[in-house]
Amino acid sequence: xxxxxxxxxxxxxxxxxxxxxxxxxxxxxxxxxxxxxxxxxxxxxxxxxxxxxxxxxxxxxxxxxxxxxxxxxxxxxxxxxxxxxxxxxxxxxxxxxxxxxxxxxxxxxxxxxxxxxxxxxxxxxxxxxxxxxxxxxxxxxxxxxxxxxxxxxxxxxxxxxxxxxxxxxxxxxxxxxxxxxxxxxxxxxxxxxxxxxxxxxxxxxxxxxxxxxxxxxxxxxxxxxxxxxxxxxxxxxxxxxxxxxxxxxxxxxxxxxxxxxxxxxxxxxxxxxxxxxxxxxxxxxxxxxxxxxxxxxxxx
Length: 300
Hints:
Blueprint: H1 2-34, H2 43-59, H3 65-68, E1 69-72, E2 76-82, E3 85-86, E4 95-98, E5 104-110, E6 114-124, E7 130-141, H4 144-149, H5 154-170, H6 175-180, H7 182-197, E8 202-213, H8 216-258, H9 260-276, H10 288-299
Helix pairs in contact: 5-7, 8-9
């Protein structure tokens, strides 16, 4: 019994060790598949093809230089594959680089900033309002190798991700937030796009919301609401003005009561104002003392 138990422990340790080794090998294989390998062993056939290609280049020299020497611009990079494997050193350029025509293939990648318009997206906001929003995105390729090896078409993928991100972000906002917080929404979209396109070697530089189009009925309702609010504010302002004017008239009456001569001066000022204007008004000056005499008789 003791010997059988010992054999079970030894076998379990052995199988456990082999299981761990298999797990490590599988994880290494997964990492190797996820990361592009630089160069590597091309095998016996690869070396034979490489040697034969060099022989052909040497026999056809210098005419073979037309096919072997390539040029990329300052704003371009060349990603070279040799027999399907990415060669060591990463992307080439700018300037001259050398390839073997028979076994090498290369792809040019533009690293300049690219801008594109996101098509208008019909978005249902958080407060159940349907709006059409479009935006513009600026991005550039910062790693040419990753943009070729990690994604089939980095430009198309970035455009699709931008449209999806725009719908997802605006779907969590109210209409008032979309209209008043465009800059905040743009920064959030930029960070989301930059995080999503980083494995593709693409850098999202800027996102701007261009236009927010509302339904016609909603525009009319908002216009009516704004007009009603303006009319209410106008009535409040007019009422406050009437209140201030009545207080000023009351104070002016108290001043005129204390100084009767001030009323005579005000009367003369009014006559001067009326006579300065070009009109057909006829004025008959009447002394205020005469009126006071009539008022005193009436009181008696």
